[in-house]
User: Which sequence fits this backbone?
């Protein structure tokens, strides 16, 4: 069940499965996060999704038991479970710009430190999923890990954030991973994208364009744009 008021000033979605509430989210959380999640019921829900189970991309029992709920939800969204198939940064939904579901999912994998899952998704057959994995890995390669954030105040009361970075060798992209990324770029696959153009629309693009050197150079800026839009919980 879903309700959206124009401009996303009010919205909610409620998923029911076998007569029980599976998950719930609403505009009360400005990032539209799932505020109620029945993990035990959700696992039964996934078991009935034959396209996921037969794909070989599901998580094993140990991962499902030990990973945080948001990591599990994010991963399954990225492999296509109940998500719209589109690639973008900020897209226009009901007159409000917001990251697509798969973008928010990749942000969660970054936040919770599951670079291993992102690396795995680079080989996923879905082109949009490959792209989310590629730009996330490049982003991590660029910035490493934030050690801490210092907030200083100017005389006018304006806040200034000072970030200290520690470059983690584990985040550095290997030659083999770069080769995979360039292989996706050179294949020039067709891509479904969405943009922030005044109303919700989907556009056609290619991996050749979206992983060009110009686009790669814009990755840090685009992640920063998400922060400006209020989705900066990983910075």
Assistant:
């Amino acid at each position: 069940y879903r309700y959206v008021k124009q401009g996303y000033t009010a919205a909610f979605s409620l998923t029911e499965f076998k007569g029980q509430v599976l998950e719930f989210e609403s505009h009360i959380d400005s990032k539209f996060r799932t505020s109620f999640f029945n993990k035990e019921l959700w696992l039964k829900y996934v078991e009935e999704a034959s396209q996921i189970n037969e794909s070989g991309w599901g998580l094993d029992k140990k991962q499902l038991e030990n990973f945080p709920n948001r990591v599990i939800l994010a991963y399954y969204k990225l492999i296509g479970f109940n998500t719209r198939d589109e690639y973008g940064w900020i897209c226009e939904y009901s007159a409000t710009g917001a990251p697509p579901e798969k973008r928010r999912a990749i942000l969660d994998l970054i936040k919770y430190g599951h670079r291993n899952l992102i690396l795995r998704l680079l080989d996923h057959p879905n082109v949009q999923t490959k792209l989310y994995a590629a730009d996330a890995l490049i982003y991590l390669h660029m910035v490493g890990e934030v050690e801490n954030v210092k907030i200083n105040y100017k005389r006018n009361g304006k806040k200034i954030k000072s970030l200290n970075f520690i470059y983690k060798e584990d985040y550095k992209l290997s030659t083999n991973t770069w080769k995979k990324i360039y292989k996706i770029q050179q294949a020039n696959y067709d891509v479904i994208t969405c943009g922030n153009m005044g109303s919700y629309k989907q556009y056609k693009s290619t991996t050749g364009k979206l992983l060009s050197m110009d686009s790669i150079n814009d990755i840090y800026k685009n992640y920063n744009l998400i922060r400006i839009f209020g989705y900066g919980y990983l910075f």
User: Anything to note?
Assistant: Residues 127-143 form the longest helix (17 residues).
